[in-house]
Amino acid sequence: MKLKWLIIGNDGVGKTSLSSIIEEKDLNKKKSLDFQYRDKTIEAPEGFIENSYLNNALIMVGQNQAKVVVFMLDDEKDNHIPPNFAKTFTRKTITIINKIDLYDKEDMDRLREIKDSIGSEIGFEISLKTGEGVDKLKKYIEEIEDERCFL
Ligand SMILES: Nc1nc2c(ncn2[C@@H]2O[C@H](COP(=O)(O)OP(=O)(O)O)[C@@H](O)[C@H]2O)c(=O)[nH]1
Ligand SMILES: [Mg+2]
User: Fold this and answer.
1) 38 φ, ψ to 5°?
2) Which biological process annotations from GO are given for this protein (predicted)?
3) Which CATH class, in words, describes the domain spanning 4-147?
4) pLDDT class for 147, splitting at 50, 70, 90?
5) Using CA atoms in the order 106, 111, 113, 116, what is the torsion angle rounded to 10 degrees?
6) What's the CA gap between 22 and 96, in Å, rounded?
């Protein structure tokens, strides 16, 4: 199986919007309670991060089917991603602060603290609405896609 990008985060954080960039096509933004498998991405539903007893399912999917585990943050709901959760994966891990078009400095400070607590290798700060920071992220995506990871 071709390894995919596992995208984790609250409802409305921008997971489907990010998938659209990785898949290079427009996607239906309908909410789902189940994992959404696509060609290059797996979008995890909010419940698997919100309910800590389901966190293990994310680890299992990440370890078995992902080449990169993506944590997405915004400022609309409480963060439920446990401290150092990224370190439980042996995959590449990144944390993306999305919707930076909406935040002031205090919001950014708070979100950066959460980002640091997750413990991923790389961080990005983007707006999928205005495109700010997205070029840098796209470059990273291209680099990983060029690596061709298969299991
Ligand atoms: N203001 C703002 N809205 C965004 C941004 N990225 C996504 N959205 C909007 O947030 C909503 C939820 O996005 P979606 O990709 O469906 O999130 P998901 O529930 O995590 O899959 C949509 O209406 C998007 O247009 C952003 O950077 N800024
Ligand atoms: Mg979605």
Assistant:
1) -130, -175
2) biogenic amine metabolic process
3) alpha beta
4) confident
5) -150
6) 14
Cα separations (Å) of 63 from 12, 39, 57, 97? 25, 18, 10, 23
Ligand 1 pocket mutation, candidates 18, 26, 27, 29, criterion most atoms within 8 A of CB = 29
Cβ–ligand 1 distance for 16 under 6 Å, the answer yes
Atom number of ligand 1 nearest to Cα 31: 19
Task: List the chain domain ranges.
Answer: 4-147
Q: Say how far apart CA 102 and CA 131 lie, in whole Å.
A: 13
* pLDDT tens, residue by residue, 60-102: 999 999 999 999 999 999 999 999 999 999 999 999 999 999 9
**What is the amino acid identity at position 58?**
L
